[in-house]
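Board notes (copied after class):
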Amino acid sequence: MATYLYKLGRFAFRRRHFVALLWVALLTLAGVGAASAPPAGNSSFSIPGTEAQRAFDLLEQRFPGMSADGATARVVFKAPEGQKMTDAGNKAAVEKTVKELGSGSEVASVADPYTGKAVSRDGTIAYASVKYKVSGMELEDSSRDALKESAGHARDAGLTVEIGGDALTTAPETGSSEVIGIAIAAVVLVITFGSLIAAGLPLLTAIIGVGIGVSAITALATPLDLGSTTSTLATMIGLAVGIDYALFIVSRYRAELAEGRDREEAAGRAVGTAGSAVVFAGLTVVIALVGLSVVNIPMLTKMGVAAAGTVAIAVLIALTMIPALLGYAGRTVKPAGEKSKLLGGGRAAKKAGRPNMGTRWASFVVRRPVTVLLLGVVGLGAAAVPAASLELGLPDDGSQPVSTTQRRAYDLLSDGFGPGFNGPLMVVVDAKGSADEKAAFAKVGDEIKGLKDVVTVTPPAPNKAGDTAIITVVPKSQPSSATTEDLVHAIRGKSASIASATDAKLLVTGATAMNIDVSQKLNDALLPYLALVVGLAFLLLIVVFRSILVPLKAALGFLLSVLAALGAVVAVFQWGWLSGLMNVEQTGPVMSMMPIFMVGVVFGLAMDYEVFLVTRMREAYVHGENPGQAVVTGFRYSARVVTAAAVIMIAVFSGFIGSSEAMIKMIGFGLAIAVFFDAFIVRMAVVPAVLALLGRRAWWLPAWLDRALPNVDVEGEGLRTDSDPDGDRELVSA
């Protein structure tokens, strides 16, 4: 592989005009496709295999036009101090608002508070329920604007009005965070390379790669039902790996220049060596992202595949466009150690002197491997302890900041009607096979009334055929509580006895039940997903490193860093440690998607650092250095660039901690702390310590497996043999 990529790098350097034109043409084509495509709506949302989804599907059949899974909004009204909602003036204002709410084209129905018994016992709070024909993910912005405008008219009449429900759910805006991340990345790259031109190349190519990927997603959104949220993960991951991969190759190019090679040869060797690491690092990220399909949540699968496509583009750009741009840059990109005139007065590289920090650190670790290993493992183990108390759930309006209208509506409803009112359960009774449908409906209602944590059970509401009914159950506890989850399981536990007594089927659905089912589905998929991703990457790394113990060490180190990061998330967002510093207003269960999302994203980035760092060690080892010396050599050439890449990623993810969305804040913190643990403790401390302790055993591979594996030559041994005057010196066998 190294030889092929070496030729590709030299070709891109020589034919830079053709390569640059090709990528510009692809960017233009994708941009035109995106501009001419119809506006992307929000993709349909379904959770196959869950009881809540089966209930929604049944309601679509038995209650046509009901839009069972459509978005809902609750417009909550509170009377001024000393007044009641039943006062004539207040009642007139509410009725006018209800009329306005029902005029939207996507509105299915609006329930009047006064006819629907939606006024609190003390008469101070009332609410109007709005049902939409489409889900919250598909709702048009115009419908949301009309909802807010109607509420504004009621406020003008002197009422306190807040809006809850999933109708106001929108994709989080992350543009400002991305700009902050890019700005910090630019500063880190300038410090790393000491040159504005060299620093600008990774940023430019990363932006071009993300531009092509996101434009392609936008162009294909309608035919593939991708939706406007699909590009979020693609943008974040594409930007991250795009900068990393280009950073690796530019850094190796400068190192080759420092060894006295001409620029075309340096470009070829950079792509042949660092480019090989980029290819395999990219494959691990693609495996992690495509592997999200095992969760069997269509929206998550589409996001993973789209992001994987963007990563593939980032790899191709790093292998071709970077050497082409290096050809254009010419002498403005200096050899390693030299500074540009603007930043360093054209200072030449030092020929000799004090070893760099990476060399000094690796030398220390090689001398004290047991101490470093114990400190690293014990420290990460201590950070992982809170993960044993991990509670998973999906956020609701109660987890929103108190400054939002959703949270204020949630609190008003809790005050007026009880906390469980924010998460009613919808029980669907399918009595089509029952001899007495009405008796079956009554039996279900009576069974549910006898359960704990139930406040209200509404009379059955049958369909026109009379064979299916809906019963609404209001719990005592809030939607995200474990007590409400237990109630859902208790109601479902009655299914067998109901079927035995009446031949009717019982299903529980609604937003609260759907959240519980999604959390369970994600929890059940975590271990299979982890086994798939780590297993495939383990096999891939065996090919890359031609070793059993090095890939095993990489996988175990990753698991340790992820557990430590989950522990930190639990400590902050569930226990409330440092919640004031992080501006966490409401503690509670950790988002159920967090573990699987963290595994996918962090695994890809962790393997980037592992492949790039350890490949350099492997390269030194097969070229004759002893194991300890190879560790030091790998750090001398790679520690600076891996550190820069990690700092950039931490900065990008940390930018999301400032988001007002609790979910985005949690994701930003979790990914930032995970990259910190993995890059600076696992890769920079645990990895060299383990390799120093293992010595030559680290690179052991059974002879039969060595013969069976393809020789991909990631370390560039073929380049050294074919074109170096020293190539005929004896190489150490793997």
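Comment from the instructor: Residues 260 and 335 are 9 Å apart (CA to CA). The two ends are 17 Å apart (CA to CA).
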